[in-house]
Structure formats: structure tokens, C-alpha cells
Design goal:
The protein is of the alpha+beta class. About 20% of the residues lie in helices and about 30% in strands. It contains six helices and 16 strands. Strands 1, 2, 3, 4, 7, 12, 14 and 16 form an eight-stranded antiparallel β-sheet that branches. A four-stranded antiparallel β-sheet has the order 5-13-8-11, with no helix packed on it. The protein starts with 6 loop residues before the first helix and ends in a 9-residue tail after the last strand. The protein binds 2-oxoglutaric acid. 2-oxoglutaric acid binds next to strand 7, strand 13 and strand 14.
Length: about 260
């Protein structure tokens, strides 16, 4: 039987905008995903259609790394291009929880392996996801799945509980980042969310979240799997891309 949120956990998600579920997949699968991620970063496995982003400081030549693989910040499109990551994106436990939140017809909006190499990975400023994304209504749900233990030292998630209910907040550009305007929140309001490898933080696309720089000697890798109801609408230019179909049917006039 696939995992399901209890009614308390579902209420928690609605109230706080997030819920953590540990042990979403078997430890062997977490190990295999870690090994596969390492093949992309350090083993010369071709990226193919996967889009890579490197740490801005390395890209600008302000920071040197021992191996080019120690500079990756983001790998996008693994669910479409890699068999193991696709298994994760379609994993029955993840999809079953997502179905409780967004309903039975599900498409994936994006997937991004977020890497924080030891002592190199930089912060991701406080932001909400939906204001970046051309999708209405702003009710997507991401499963932020940890490949490594995520700790306060290596850049676990920090969130503003309940703030998804405030709607989209004003964001500003600050050195290559798009962040919630300073002064709108007090950092003391942030809740840290440390997690074991193999867990999932399911969070609402309007929940403000932040990750600190990795100041530790251990990797922090997590893949953000963002799902939406197939009844969502594309609000950007044109008809929008063909999104990865997870489950169920499509609807006329909605995301393709
Ligand atoms: O993994 C991180 O460091 C940040 C992730 C994030 O901000 C996101 O998935 O929207």
C-alpha cells in the first residue's frame, strides 16, 4: 500500500504549508540515486538533455574548486532524462501524497536536483515559488526529496510556517537572486527543517523558504519535484510546454 498522509498531517499541511515524511523510499534506492548523482557530477556521465547550473562564484572565477563536479548548483530535467530519477518522480509513495494534496490528475511542473557541495554551496534567498512560475492557481506542491541528511550546517530548508496563506509577496532582485523584500519578515520567524536522507518535505508553492550556505564538509543534495493539478492553467506566453504527465487525464484549456 502506498503511503498516505493521516488527517492530522493533511491538516498540518493546510495550516503550516508543509509536512515532512521521512523514509519515503527504500534506503537502497536513496543509495542508488546518490551514486547516480555522483556519476553526473564527478563520473563523466553525459548530461544529455539535463540542464546544469554552476555556483555563480565559481562561474565568475572568484572561487576555485578541486574538481569541476564540486561546482554544480542545479541539474534540471533528470526525471525526463534519467531512468532512476524518473522512478523517483513517479514513486507511488510520493505520487500518493501529492494526489491527496492536488487531486488525481497530476502533471510535473519542474524537477531540479539542488546541490550544495561542501563549503562551496551558496545560500538560496527567502522566496516563494509561485511568483516565479507561470501557473494558476498558485497551488502547486513540491516534494523536496533529500539524497543526503539535510542539517542546519549544510543548508537544510528553513520556512515561514503558515505564510502560504498570505498570497504572493513582493519580491526583489538581489545579486542574481529573486527574494522576498527585506523587512517583510523577521528571520526569527523561520522554522528550520532538518531531515534524514530519503525523506520528503512536501510544501505549498506560496510557502516562503530559504536555504543557508553549506558550511560543512558534507554534501547536501535534494531534488525538488514540483507537481500541479492537470486542471492548472499556463499564464505565460503561448500555450506553454508539454509538461511531464504523472497520472490521470488532461483538460481542454489547461496545462498540456
Ligand atoms: O534546495 C535548495 O537549496 C533550495 C530549493 C528551493 O528553493 C526550491 O526548490 O524552490
Amino acid at each position: 500500500m502506498a503511503m498516505q498522509l493521516t488527517s492530522e498531517q493533511l491538516e498540518g499541511y493546510e495550516r503550516d504549508g508543509y509536512v515532512v515524511i521521512e523514509g519515503l523510499v527504500a534506503p537502497e534506492m536513496v543509495e542508488a540515486l546518490r551514486a547516480r548523482a555522483r556519476e553526473y557530477t564527478h563520473g563523466g556521465r553525459p548530461l544529455g538533455s539535463v540542464r546544469a547550473q554552476v555556483e555563480p562564484k565559481v562561474a565568475r572565477g572568484e572561487l576555485q574548486v578541486a574538481h569541476p563536479g564540486d561546482s554544480f548548483r542545479k541539474l534540471e530535467g533528470l526525471v525526463e532524462g534519467d531512468d532512476l530519477f524518473q522512478k523517483l518522480g513517479l514513486h507511488e509513495n510520493i505520487v500518493s501524497v501529492i494526489e491527496q494534496i492536488v487531486g488525481p490528475d497530476i502533471k510535473m511542473f519542474r524537477n531540479a536536483l539542488m546541490l550544495k557541495p561542501p563549503e562551496v554551496g551558496s545560500a538560496k534567498g527567502m522566496h516563494q515559488d509561485s511568483p516565479y512560475w507561470p501557473i494558476e492557481p498558485m497551488e502547486l506542491c513540491s516534494c523536496w526529496f533529500t539524497l543526503d541528511d539535510a542539517t542546519p550546517e549544510n543548508g537544510c530548508m528553513a520556512v515561514l510556517p503558515g505564510w502560504h496563506k498570505k498570497g504572493p509577496l513582493p519580491h526583489v532582485n538581489v545579486t542574481d537572486d529573486y527574494v522576498v523584500e527585506e523587512g517583510l519578515y523577521d528571520p526569527a520567524q523561520m522554522a528550520l527543517v532538518p531531515m534524514k536522507a530519503g525523506g520528503g518535505l512536501f510544501f505549498h508553492s506560496l510557502l516562503p523558504h530559504y536555504t543557508a550556505p553549506n558550511r560543512s564538509k558534507s554534501w547536501r543534495r535534494a531534488i525538488a519535484l514540483s507537481y500541479m493539478s492537470a486542471r492548472s492553467r499556463h499564464t505565460g506566453e503561448g500555450e506553454g510546454p508539454d509538461y511531464f504527465n504523472v497520472k490521470g487525464q488532461s483538460y481542454p484549456g489547461c496545462v498540456r
